[in-house]
Amino acid sequence: MDSITLQKKLSTYVSEKGQLRKVSDELLFEVLTAWENWQGTAKSFYQEIGFSQRQMAKIIGRAKKLKREGYFGDAGFKELQPPQVASSHLASGALIEVTLGDGKIIRFPHVDQLLEFMKKAS
Length: 122
Hints:
two-stranded antiparallel sheet
């Protein structure tokens, strides 16, 4: 969101004493999104939208709390799945290498063969 638009929206919630009061949840989400996407320093963010750190601390804190509680939904959350390694790939190309104390290298294509070797060697 544009910082000027955000500043105008926030200015509608400023009381006569200069405090931000009764900010809507939708605007809290917009502020939090802008805050999380901000590339500069916190001070520059506050200056850009025209409010002090004291004014914005409560707003951002409340927005984070609502996000933790799941109020904003999981629109931005995407679960990542680790890549699955096919067993045929392990059997065809991947090897387990063990270097012995005298510099010899023994290669095992499967973990079972390594375990069997270790049982016999002990």
